[in-house]
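Quick start: what a row looks like.
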Amino acid sequence: MSAVVQMRSPAAPRDDFDASTLLNLARSRSPDDRQRLLLGVAALCESTPTARAAPVLGDIFLALTAQAEREIRLVLAERLADADWAPPALINMLALDEIEIARPVITSSPLLKDADLIRLLVDATLEHQIAVARRPGLSRSVTDVIVERGEAVTMTALASNRTADISEAALHRLVEESRRLAGLRAPLSRHPRLNEALAQELYQWVGQALRQSIGERFRIDDRLLNGAVQDASAALARNGGWRAVPISGRKEDGGDRHEMERRLVDKLQAAGQLRPGLLVRALREHRLVLFEQTLAALGGFTSPQVHTAIRAPTAEPLYLACIAVGVDRAVFPSLLVEVRKLTGGFPADGGWTATALNAASASRAFLQMVEKPGSV
């Protein structure tokens, strides 16, 4: 009989609730002891939690970190998903585990705070990010991060989450993104926070079925909106698509553009809203100056240091700067492609070492590289 089946057997004897007994079982490599441990942990989770139970569970999991079977971690995740008394460190460990184990915790645990959820959005896999976006009752600070990061499937999951607190500005961004991401259109058309102004914007690029759905919720003037659609189509034809014009190299933008982007970065930083997601957004909108100034502000770097990294013969300095401000290692290759499109191929062809550095170490390495003569 498998471990999972045995877990559903009648509760383990009361002596399995003793901390020393459970810890001894956790350290044992005997298959029989593993089975007893699984039953003991399951029974402890199902019992009425006490002040002593939580630290015992935390100690057990820490003892099991190196060799815990998947079934044990899965049991803990399922049984502790709704618990408000479990050790927070244990809940955070489970939330970073493989997605089948992490999902119930991410979805339900009251012990995961906004900072924990944002860390999952930055550090965990795409599947973890989707689970965060689907979590009931998401706060505005978390939904802002999801929208700013601009990941298509995560934004779509958020748009389908009707209990999430999404600001009007973030919802407007989702409506704008739906122009290129068809998967956003249906959930946005049914979103309870969709207002008439956003509905009119969304109406311009959805199909007939969704137009009918939007029209049933709002007083839509078909004549005016169809005119707007025709105007948008004409603009698309004139401009050769919805592609933004790169600002780099446009002489007339010069100082005005730099000043405008600097004010935006200063404003976001003063409000505590300057986040790495703006880097991706800036590149998508072909705003290289905004990208440079955001990277400098996030990392505490100077503009010349960032400029040097972007014009370097290798991507190593830019990689280090991005890691220093919280850009995911997996995101950097696509980010680099966009930077090179806007700079005519810089950083040059030299690659980078995808070293697993923390932010502080990456920052130090970046500063040493750009400040050392002849290093880049």
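That is the whole record. Residues 209 and 360 are 51 Å apart (CA to CA). The longest helix spans residues 222-239.
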